[in-house]
Amino acid sequence: MIELPQSIQDCVESFSKLPGVGGKTALRQVMAMSKWQVQDLLDFSNAINELQTLNKCSECGVLSDSDICKICSNEFRKDSSVICVVENISDLMAIEKSNNFSGLFHILGGVLNPLAGIGPSHLRIDKLIERVKKLDTKSIILAINPSVEGDATCAYIKQLLGEHINVERIGFGIPIGGSLELLDPMTISKALENRKILE
Ligand SMILES: [Zn+2]
User: Fold this and answer.
1) What is the whole-number distance in angstroms between the Cα of residue 59 and the centre of ligand 1?
2) Tens-place pLDDT, residues 86-129
3) pTM of the model
4) Per residue in 15-39, pLDDT tens?
5) DSSP string, 82-135
6) How far is the CA of 98 from the centre of ligand 1 (A)?
7) From the CA of 27, how far away is ligand 1's center (Å)?
8) Which residues keep their CB under 5 angstroms from ion ligand 1?
9) What spacing in Å lies between the alpha carbon of 66 and ligand 1's midpoint?
10) Which fold has domain 73-197?
11) Structural domain 6-53, CATH architecture
12) What are phi and psi of 142, to 5 degrees?
């Protein structure tokens, strides 16, 4: 069997690190790219390089070019009395796309999972509590995907925030084990409208 040039092998190895991309797919992508014009290759590699400079918003945790993201710094949408808590950026984007929420967001960075060694200190829970106090938040919407870990995370946050704040969880239409990022905007809108107060 012939050995592929090192540059191809290196690229295939890098592509294989992407979620859902195996060796075969990676090779197919790299072979297609090997036919690209020089400028296209440069643009692609520059765009990847720029990822190094990405910041996370120091408030909500979304990826951002600046210290405070566009949502947190937008005076017109800032309904700071409501914070929608999500697991990750894909979920935030899914809710944004539903156009049914005008409050602030908070990205946890996952859910509690003791078996995988993920405890409260690995998530942005402390920062959430800090923001709730600072912004005098009146209501929290937990847009956490339904799963054993998601349920435990919601219960934990509810317990931390105590009785002084309204904590609700979206639910309607979200299948067990489902993921917000895979749902259509209509389902997400419905889920936001049909949320339940956590007891
Ligand atoms: Zn932000």
Assistant:
1) 5
2) 999 999 998 998 888 889 999 999 999 988 899 999 999 999 99
3) 0.75
4) 999 989 998 999 999 999 999 999 9
5) EEEEESSHHHHHHHHHHT---EEEEE-SS--BGGGTB-GGGTTHHHHHHHHHHH
6) 18
7) 37
8) 57, 59-60, 69, 72
9) 9
10) Dna Topoisomerase Vi A Subunit; Chain: A, domain 2 (3.40.1360)
11) Orthogonal Bundle (1.10)
12) -90, 105
